[in-house]
Amino acid sequence: MDRLARIYHLDRELKARRHPVSVRVLAEVLECSERNVKHIITRLRDAGIPIRYDRERNGYFLDRQDHRFELPGLWLNASELHALMISHHLLAEVQPGWLNNYIAPLQQRIEKLLTTPQQDFQQLQRRVRILQTAARPARLDHFQQISEAVIARRRLYMLYHGRERDRTTERTVSPQRLVYYRDNWYLDAWCHEAQGLRSFSIDRLHPAAVMDEPAIDVDDAELDDHYTQAYGIFSGKADQAAHLLFSPEAAKWVADESWHPRQRGHVHPDGRYELHIPYGDPRELIMDILKFGPEVEVLGPKGLREEVANRIRKAARLYGICGKTS
Length: 326
Hints:
24% strand, single chain
């Protein structure tokens, strides 16, 4: 039993007892020395818990007349608290400041409980790094307003500037999920103007107001069917399947990667890797194929193969090497 567990266990034990409990009995219950029991009692008293000592009965009891203090309802052991704080650290790197207002009041108290002569909680935080690539930071105030609408299940009135069409539109949406994908945040929502599910890049979204009207809840199965069938961030049905063949060198990495939940792949005797991936909109898939250069060949469908070949020809012309080989 770790120190944090003993603190809560002692608190529960004293609350359950009708008569004072000796240090010897408490030491047996907490599986520690009598000296440690006294140390825990001192810490709880310092925190404001009204633990009294009855000299006649040689035991400790909880003063039920004093209701000034209750331990917070955070029934976690040390390893779970470590996980909580590391999760906060990771999320702070992904979206700085998002949970500060909620976690900060508890953070110092948790760190005190977790810090011992054998371990330094600050060291734990310094040993975790997140490296982001091509991240598009979202404004914290916008992100907090959007997350409030998601959690409170309220409709959101917003302005959205789409990059592809380069225009701003007014939308009222029922937010469904926040999605962190490839170092960027997206909002999956039911758009009341389009009368359908849409995905919005949060860095292009300006939330004007969280409305009083409750959000429409779309069934989880329907959300998964809409957002996870196709490849990447693009939603909709996966009506085609890419057939890719990777070189033995690229296969060392790709064979261990998950590109899609319903992909199929197998390794050839010569080390090449064959991969089948369902997709709808091919744009993101094409970008991922192109980054492997000559280490992958698109075997089908014909339209995907031609589009990848066309992109390669355009890139070659930029460098004046179309039709040449090195």
